Amino acid sequence: MDLTSEEKMELAISRLKNLLRSKYSISSSYSGGKDSTVCVILMLEAMRQLKQEGEYVPNCYIMNSNTRRDMPMMNIYLEESLSNIRVFCAKHDLPVEVVQVEPSIAGRWTWTCLGRGKLPRYPGQSVDCSVDEKITPMQRQTKLIEDENIHEIITLVGTRASESSKRERSMRKYQMSETAIVEIDGKRTYSLISDWELDDVWSLIVSCSGSKEHPPRCFATFNENFDQLATLYRDANDGHCTLVFDKKHSSGCGSRFGCSWCLSNGDRDKSLESLIREDVDKYGFMSPLIEFRTFLQNIRFDLSRRDFRGRNVSQAGYLKVTPDYFNSRTKRELLRYLITIDVMEKERAEEHQRKWDANEIEHTDHNSLLCEPMFQYITYDDVLIIDFAWSLQRDFGEASAAAKDYIEIHDLGYRYPVPSIKEAPRVSIPKRRWFDVSKALPHDEDVDGLFYLIPETQTLYLGEISLSDALSVEPGSGWSYLRAVRNAFYELHLVDHQEVCRAALKNRWISMRKADVKRYDDIARRHDYIYKLMQSETPMKEDIVTGDDLIMSVDEYLRDNSISDEEHSVLLSRHYRKELEAEYEQDLFGVDSVVDAMELGKPAPAPKARNSTLHRVDDFKDIANQITIDV
């Protein structure tokens, strides 16, 4: 039987009340979008009703993950809404804590893409960036809360089956529905509105909107009205957004707001383009974000922008040679564009303030808002971690390249506008090859890692490295680093590029897990090994037109001096044989039988089974009744 929007709302609130009566804490993920807004509205109303009925209400949570690159207008609306939620909960004495989290350094886009060179997630690829930037930080925070809380936590998510066929398949795979709480590896998730249509979502939002003269048709909630949210969705949908309609005339007010240059939602960001098209005075400041996104999209298949230095080393001591990452030139180019975009936004805000002061623009709330920069994507801390990554990977022959660019753009007026380029044609990815870096691994005396610092008489010891639970920047360290670079700006050419990563550790600007120290040292060693090979050999290639000798690039050198996948497989077999000779000396079958079996091809390891359990939501009604009777 099809339920009306009002019936779905009442049923959802009833189910939440039963969960709360069963002594579960509820945590609602909140992004500011329409679906997560509905989940928060329903959760707060269930809590308010229980409170009004004189029943016990456990502590609950509203959790937001700031990716540090969210769409600016949505981010501004979100901050205002979170403030209103705090006021609403205080007014109604609801035990709700608003928790905002950010990705760790290792999960930030600035570290993964600009620092390490990992490719952004393009259409059709897994959105592991969402895991790094949103899901993992919230799961980590939920675990901390559970450790301190007497109640187990159920997390509400605003996923709906009708959003897309892809979303429906994913929800069906994990058996997510409005009638079941899915427990995977001890984490409980509830898709409260999985059966809701877009009409139902907007119907509730409109029903909870009111004004001083006209109270809401349904009940009041944390925002007096949701006009600002509706305007964002309408403007992102070419100005069309019918909020109340029948099933035969389903609306198009389902625009999606991702990160500022999210690529996974298609060739174009239609929502952001529509916003700017609808009102350039209001949203035009975001135009550079479209240009940056388009540039990223157009270089997807440009292999001249790829780094063939793979990130994996085999058991035989060979580095995988494959174009899986952006190369140094492209990483620096992208950083320069983003810093320039930041500075241009700062200059736009200053000019807007001048017009405001001179009464050249109307004194509206939005114009007042535009007098301040609406975003900043590259911070001092970002510059530090990017230079740390570039130094580890020996990306440049100069020290502090990221800091130098930051200073030149912010202080000296350099500008790097995003160019308009044609989309690179789709090409086949070359087969992977393997380059011998075994001499870099056993701590060869001629190969430097992390443990030397200029002047050469000083040494970086493990005990001097600040250790923590994850890679992190100590508070104020980004500013300290930029100040140090500014003071030595005209002497940077005297500093070896590899010293930046050591200085960051020596000065305790950056801390890391003890288990990662050797990993980063190995990364520095193998890149230093390749760099020194290039220096000592000065490899050349012949110009096919003039016959002149030309210097090889690192990528060309690696490809020219590497072995094929098949040759590498033979080396791996020999490596395994040596390991097995010691292990199987007394084995009845001998080494040959084991190696032969390995060469026949081991089956791919089965994916690790995840502990999954389903709980029927309606079961909590009986539990809640028992608890009520006991009380």
Give a description of the structure:
With 631 residues, this protein is of the alpha/beta class. The protein folds into 2 domains: 5-224, HUPs (Rossmann fold, 3-Layer(aba) Sandwich), CATH 3.40.50; 301-566, no CATH class. The chain has helices at residues 5-21, 34-52, 72-91, 109-115, 128-148, 165-173, 198-207, 227-235, 270-278, 280-283, 287-298, 328-357, 365-369, 380-392, 401-410, 477-487, 499-506, 514-537, 554-560, 565-583, 590-599, 619-630; strands at 25-29, 60-65, 96-101, 153-156, 180-184, 187-190, 306-313, 318-326, 433-436, 472-473, 510-511, 540-542, 549-551, 563-564, 612-616. A 7-stranded mixed β-sheet has the order 3-2-1-4-6-5-15.
Determine Rg (CA atoms, Å). 28 Å
Q: Which range best describes the helical content: under 10%, 10-25%, 25-40%, 40-55%, 55-70% or over 70%?
A: 40-55%
Specify the overall morphology.
globular
Structural class: alpha/beta
Average of per-residue pLDDT values: 86
Poorly predicted segments: 244-252, 452-458, 626-631
Distance between the termini: 36 Å
Total strands: 15
The major beta sheet can be summarized as:
7 strands, mixed
Strand fraction equals 5-15%
The main sheet orders its strands as 3-2-1-4-6-5-15
| Oligomer kind | single chain
Total domain count: 2
Helical stretch count?
Answer: 22
Organism: Vibrio thalassae
Pfam family, one: PAPS_reduct
Protein name: Phosphoadenosine phosphosulphate reductase domain-containing protein
Domain Phosphoadenosine phosphosulphate reductase: 27-206
